[in-house]
Design a protein that fits this description.
Elements (H helix, E strand, L loop, with lengths): L1 E5 L2 E5 L3 H19 L5 H32 L4 E7 L2 E6 L6 H31 L6 H21 L7 H14 L2 H29 L5 H28 L4 H4 L7 E2 L4 H12 L3 E7 L2 E7 H5 L11 H4 L1 E2 L5 E3 L4 H8 L8 E5 L6 E6 H17 L1
Parallel strand pairs: 2-3, 5-6, 9-10
Antiparallel strand pairs: 1-2, 3-4, 6-7, 7-8, 10-11
């Protein structure tokens, strides 16, 4: 569910976030009941909901600090989404330096710790100055302080891709001058700590009969899986940032004429040469569009004999332009900003030059796959 925008960042709330509010509400209301045994159901609901909402806002502030710091370092942040396991700031690319990685990662837990200590100070001020605040306010101060401090400390665990794991990676990256090596080490620690949480959860569930162990198991499995995926993403981004368009550009052997009958295009080109798309020209060297196999599929079989290629091609202006000296990561970023689902780019040698080639996302991913296989061998 989209809630709005802050500084260009879309704020989303996943329905699973409601479970966080319920869990925090239950434990804070239980704590309140232990202090005020005569509390009614409405009092308990009020205390629970207040604390649940405060904790949700705290998670949001934690993620917002990550996002604003990322924007400070010129990284694009598309959205913040709150969900079952907390929240995530969707930063579109990896930090460019160990310093930026450190500050982007550390600011979230720091904000949680600051909020937590502020709430706890307010709680203890009541005892120091005998303010006699209502019990529900004291419970809110204490519980909000406790949960924020725990949130900050938990996120500082050196388990990649958690904040602490990213801080560790920034340190190793700065020391080794190798982001892949740093990520590999941080990932191993992240997976190990994930499995430790799973083991603790099982122990808590089996030996002590506490269902809270299920939460540890879920978090541990999520962390182990996220570590593996984040490592793969880092490796992919690193490789893509070192592959230039000119290195993966494959010359198009065939182009189709605008007036070519659609039936002939399907039979003589799509079937014979097993290609998914072809550039379309109105005259030699003048590209006017691209026709994809999906475009032909959308034409009823009985109608195809009535069409020429030009009737169903997609206009050339609908496709992003990339240049020889751009990296493959730049191309992927351009694909993510367009509505065209084909993800095919026009290649030019420079801005004012003519079109010289085309590159699809599938061709790019095949190049990435081949390079990764080669790097494993050497």
């Amino acid at each position: 569910m989209k809630l709005g925008k802050i500084n260009g960042i879309v704020i989303k709330l996943h329905f699973s976030t409601l479970l966080i509010i319920v869990i925090v509400a239950y434990f804070s209301a239980t704590y309140y009941l232990s202090l005020v045994p005569e509390a009614g159901i409405l009092d308990l609901l009020f205390v629970g909901i207040i604390n649940g909402i405060i904790f949700l806002v705290s998670i949001f502030i934690h993620e917002l600090c990550h996002s604003l710091m990322a924007q400070h370092y010129k990284l694009k942040v598309s959205e913040i989404e709150l969900f079952l396991f907390g929240g995530v700031s969707k930063i579109e690319e990896e930090p460019k330096t160990p310093k930026s990685e450190f500050f982007i990662s550390a600011v979230g837990p720091l904000s949680s710790l600051i909020m937590g200590f502020i709430y706890l100070i307010l709680y203890f001020l009541d005892f120091l100055f005998a303010l006699s605040l209502p019990t529900w306010i004291l419970v809110t101060f204490f519980y909000s302080g406790y949960t924020n401090v725990m949130l900050g400390l938990f996120n500082l665990l050196p388990a990649f891709p958690m904040d602490g794991g990213r801080v560790l990676r920034a340190y190793l990256w700065n020391r080794r001058k190798d982001i892949i090596s740093a990520t590999k080490t941080a990932t191993k620690i992240g997976k190990f700590l994930g499995y430790v949480l799973v083991a603790l959860g099982i122990l808590q569930l089996v030996s002590l009969g506490q269902y809270a162990g299920l939460w540890l198991i879920f978090i541990g499995l999520f962390l182990a899986s996220a570590s593996k995926k984040s490592y793969a993403q880092t490796v992919n981004e690193y490789i893509l940032s070192h592959i230039y368009v000119k290195n993966v550009s494959i010359s198009q052997k065939y182009v189709l004429h605008y007036e070519l009958p659609l039936i002939d295009a399907l039979k003589d080109y799509f079937v014979n040469f097993n290609q998914l798309y072809y550039p379309v020209v109105s005259e030699p060297g003048k590209f006017v569009g691209i026709i994809h196999l999906n475009d032909i599929k959308n034409v009823p079989i009985e109608e195809r004999s009535k069409y020429i290629v030009g009737n169903i091609m997609r206009d050339i202006t609908l496709f992003p332009v990339v240049y020889y000296e751009e990296t493959s990561r730049d191309v992927i970023k351009k694909f993510s900003t367009i509505a065209n689902e084909l993800h095919i780019a026009i290649i030019k040698e420079s801005e004012n030059r003519n079109i010289i080639n085309f590159l699809s996302e599938k061709e790019l991913m095949n190049a990435l796959k081949n390079i990764k296989i080669y790097k494993q061998q050497v």
